[in-house]
Amino acid sequence: MAPGRLLPLLVAILCGFGVGASPTTTPTLVSGGGGASAEDEVLLLATALNRDYVGKAILPDLGALLRLDALPEVHRPAAEQFRALWDEHLTGAKGYDVVRDIPFTLIIPNRIDRVALDSLDEPRAREFLLEHVIPGALVELKDGHVYANANQHPVGVNLTCINMLLGYVLRYAQDTQEVRVVGHRHNVTDSLAVVFVEGNLTENKAAVNTNKLNKRNIQENNRYNEPQRLEMKNATKELAAIKENRIGQHLMNFLASMKSGTKVFQHFLSSSNLSQLLDDSSYMVLIPSDTAFQRWHPIDWGFYPFSVQEFTESVLRNHFVRVRQPPRMADLRSGAGEQKFKTLGGEMVVLKSKPIPNVNNVSIMYDYTLSNGVEVFVISEVLFVSEAVVSRLHQMHKDKETPPLLAFPWFGAQFLSHSFLALERDNRFTQITRFLNTAEIAQFISGSNYTFFVPTDEAFERYSFDILPDNVLASEKGVKLLLNHFIKGRLYDRDLKDGEVLDTIGGMPVKIHRTFDQNATVNSARIVESEVFVYNLGTMFYVDDVLYPELLKDEVTAITEIKTPDKNVPEDVGSDIYTTDVGQPDQTSSTTPTPAATSTTHRTFFTTSADVEFVPLEITEQNGSDDDFLLQDDEIITPKALPVKYYFAPKK
């Protein structure tokens, strides 16, 4: 196997079989707020590496320790915002001791909704910040590590595979909420480390979740005795409801106890909303093995059907059966007939005993009876998934397809590389591929997650950009014009809303317009083809105009003036052919004059250095010999690599 294909294959294998605990595995930080039971949280806190500092009211001297110059420039705005919030809500806070000899780790979100945060009262704003403080430890990003934050909630580190890329996430341990770690830990001083994350530990589809309560402050703030506003969750009732419904928790505890074989199912179940459908009834659960899911995983690159969340959710529902009395393996072996059941998703499953115990002709590998009576059958295939189903799903979700890893043309810019290769195969885009091949923009379009508005050849020719030499396209203006066609972030057609203004990577804004028939334009460019997916890397939209063409207007004018001289061109010569008399007949000779040799030069005023160049007239002058005449056509056109020069014969 080629080395270029080995890395994605290794990642696919690691992701498919589960690194750490699941097929999505990146270090994540997780903090416990309200999804697990109180006793589970106590157990997690007991395993925290900084458990000796649980309950201690201590804070770092952030003003003295958090030096922005010790952090990467890209993270400094987030750190500066976090420090400003700290100064506003925690500096001088009563009941806390500021210490310098104890290590701390700050988990700094890359985005904080200041509007939402400013709407909170002072205690809740303080709680938000304390969720992101780990006292007594410099957090190590290692899979399985658990730390307690300053609000006495457990924060776990997990190695996860997301979109076929391994990395770390921090998970709020009592929720399914997790945030991806950006980069690595930054040691600001010997006693202060910083970890940057995408999102924040208290959000759950919101910028700030106000339902996390610091247990140390519950009594002093008397929050459980206050009337709760209608828009707030009642944390007490929520916890009670979870305790009453132990079906999902029993199953998750069982899956967590399995060291191998069911980790993929465990991951998908924990990420789904299926637990909301479970009640106190008896259930039969059909769990496909990890190998069963691995069958549908692309070996190197391709489409993984379970990357489509809605599809995965429906498949999971069809593996749960609500029954009065769950069948046992012993009953199956002793019975001669078949038993039919309807799944939560509405499909029918048939259990048979022969030739071996099976469900829908898929063999049952082994079974377990849980303490609450739930019967678990581990099966060898995923039910209701076939090649035909996956093929149809693939056509509907091209944006989920994982790409092959390209070493060419730009290894560090996979979206740009795949976009270039796709456009190169389409004869409508010869100009943009020439532009991409000439301008050095890979450093600005690294990695993935982009939107590219791609002008057609007709759009470039409308402004005579096709006559521009390569050095103009590669100039600062050329690069800026090209970057004005890229948006950071993947957009779908539904995201292009009327009146929306988007910032391009080139720095210029573009405005979206929607007509009554839902046709979309970007500035003056009409989208002629929408949602051309570049695997799961980003999206292209084909447009019929160039964005901000005025950036190269002067260059086009200069080239045009050079190639359209207003003098020294014979009046009787057209614009397509220029014939110059080279020899003159001998007028004094009594013999028949010898026809003069002529030099015929075909020219187009709007040529480029990629075409031909004219050489000095004296080079093409001939003496009228036959040998010279045969060589004439070869001599008047020179290779395009030579400097471009234009010479015209003076009028006689």
From TrEMBL:
Gene3D superfamilies: FAS1 domain (2.30.180.10). Residues 248-383, 416-547 form the FAS1 domain. This is FAS1 domain-containing protein. Residues 570-600 are annotated as: Disordered. Residues 577-587 have a biased composition (Polar residues). Residues 1-21 form the signal peptide. InterPro entries: Adhesion/Biosynth-related (IPR050904), FAS1_dom_sf (IPR036378), FAS1_domain (IPR000782). Residues 588-600 have a biased composition (Low complexity). Pfam families: Fasciclin (PF02469). Keywords: Signal.
